[in-house]
Amino acid sequence: MINVAVVGFGVVGSGVVELLDKNNRLFSKKLNQEIACKYILDIREFPGSIYADKFVKDFSVIENDPEINIVVETVGGATFAYEYTKRALRAGKHVVTSNKELVAKHAPELLALARENGVCYLFEASVGGGIPIINPMYHCLAANELNRIVGIMNGTTNYILTKMIKEGVSFDAALRQAQLLGYAEKDPSADIDGIDTGRKICILASLAFGKHIYPENVMTKGIRGISLDDIYEADRQGMVVKLLGCAEKKDDGFVEIFVSPCAIPREHPLANIEDVFNGITVTGDAIGDCTFYGRGAGKMPTASAVGADIIDCVKGTEKSSLFWVDADNSTFVRSFDKLNLEYFKNDIALLKE
Question: pLDDT tens-digit profile of 48-62?
Fold first, then answer.
């Protein structure tokens, strides 16, 4: 019997519990044994929930229960989540997360801790929501030397830019629509200022290039200042505006990395990715360009990625040791100034192929 504890019963956490319940027979068949969610940790009350008998408020209940095999961390942030993750790994429990902030800041330490305790720390859901990107990069493209990653990695900003491009609404109006639909938080800063995309490009670049890249070392510019004049000027020149995370490993070993709104040609594979969808293009020396596309966020798409990691945890612990653990990147990241970019008007970079 595989017992899972879910930490955080928000959008993603509740999706994971529902998916384990709904597809329980499928999970059990793939694992050749039964699986169940035994605990849900959340400080809030959920009166009337069908999962009422599973709720606990003290993490030590999960930590000290030898029957718990896997902890799913969806609480977000890098405070409580960081502490809970370390405690779970030290207790010999696999940890699966969708928390890009925690992975971007602390992955080398947490991966090393997982390896020391013979368990997995997996985070497919931290980038691209339901899009399979981390596993394909690390396994399906393992024969390639990866040298470039370019992607639309934030559904909120892509939705806003799509509304501006397609309907001619202002940035403020598009943001309000995104908030009404639940695509943007009340405080949307992490999305519209590029912070979320910065964390995700750091995770992917670190995996691709072998050394951990910290978000604070990445030049990050969001879409807050984008106007309809910018959108119209890009259109006049046969381009569309997208918020991109970009990382490229150069011949001298340095990585040039940034987050910025970019004007890209209409024929570019990422130009027609709209609304809340994400698209990420990975370039390898053997395969060339390979683009991954799908829903980059949302309850069930992200739960799908978490569920796949749960299955991988049960099937074997060797996977965790494959991921990078080198945290020294002091001579690894080159500043944005030296990127091969030209400015498109004032705030938009022109992406050059």
Answer: 899 999 999 999 999
Alpha helix segments (H runs only) across 185-238: 189-192, 195-209, 228-236
Contact 278, 294 (CB under 8 A): yes
- Helix or strand run (H / E) with residue 134: helix 134-135
Q: What angle do CA 264, 129, 219 make, to 5 degrees?
A: 50
Q: Which residue has the higher pLDDT, 148 or 348?
A: 148
Check if 299 is active-site. Answer: no
CA distances 35 to 220, 223, 320, 344, Å, are: 42, 43, 21, 53
Q: By percentage, how much of the chain surpasses pLDDT 90?
A: 76
Contact 36, 20 (CB under 8 A): yes
Nearest to 148 by CA among 256, 12, 73: 256
Where do the domains of the chain lie?
Answer: 2-132+299-322, 134-295+329-350
Instruction: Check 200, 221, 249, 299 and give the catalytic one.
Output: 200
Per DSSP, 136 falls in state I
Can you tell me the distance from the alpha carbon of 336 to that of 340, in angstroms, rounded to the nearest whole number?
9
Taking only the tens place, the pLDDT of each residue in 101-119 is: 999 999 999 999 999 999 9
Two tokens at 28?
Answer: 């059990």
Query: Domain 134-295+329-350, what fold?
Result: Dihydrodipicolinate Reductase; domain 2 (3.30.360)
**pTM value?**
0.91
Nearest-Å Rg of the Cα atoms of the chain is: 20
**What is the third-level CATH fold of 2-132+299-322?**
Rossmann fold (3.40.50)
Residue tagged 């009422």 (tokens): 52
